[in-house]
Automatic annotation (TrEMBL):
PROSITE patterns: HTH_MARR_2. Residues 1-149 form the HTH marR-type domain. The keyword Cell division does not apply. It comes from the Bacteria. Pfam families: Staph_reg_Sar_Rot. Keywords: DNA-binding, Transcription, Transcription regulation. The keyword Transferase does not apply. This is MarR family winged helix-turn-helix transcriptional regulator.
Length: 156
């Protein structure tokens, strides 16, 4: 189907799309503003710290990290550089592959994450979770899991 043959969105579909666009942008902006004001972290930086903290050795291959946080390798590399300047993360060579580079969460980075997490989780709860009924939370999880799976399967 080319652009001239597009199946235009009906009123309900357009309402769903616009609500998603507006709501997700406003939510990300609010959470980012709160994290930055209180802890000097962007939401993207926070997500990198979380992903690294979830690993048993607090390390992740840069390419995997980029895929996990849905950013380009160059954007993640830039973020890691900023996090390195604050001694929150460091790059280390991959032992099993001399060409591979790992991002590793430092002790200072872990402390920063532990400090920021309670406030961030409270913001997520206040600005999203507590606004939803339990069945709506399940629908949201189902819809976005399906979206993530679909988009990971799409060829770039």
């Amino acid at each position: 189907m080319n652009e001239r043959q597009a199946a235009w969105l009906d009123q309900g579909e357009m309402a769903a799309w616009r609500s998603y666009i507006d709501g997700s942008a406003l939510l990300e902006h609010r959470l980012n503003k709160e994290l930055h004001a209180a802890h000097g972290l962007s939401i993207a930086d926070y997500e990198i710290l979380v992903r690294l903290a979830e690993q048993p050795d607090r390390r992740l291959r840069m390419s995997k990290l980029a895929k996990d946080v849905a950013h380009s390798k160059s954007r993640v590399s830039h973020q890691i550089r900023r996090l390195e300047s604050g001694d929150l993360v460091r790059r280390v060579e991959c032992d099993s592959d001399g060409r591979g580079v790992l991002a590793e969460l430092t002790d200072k980075g872990m402390a920063k994450l532990r400090s920021a997490a309670p406030m961030h989780v409270a913001g997520v709860r206040r600005h999203l979770i507590d606004l939803l009924e339990p069945h709506e939370q399940q629908v949201l999880a189902t819809v976005f899991s399906r979206l993530v799976d679909h988009l990971h399967d799409v060829d770039d």
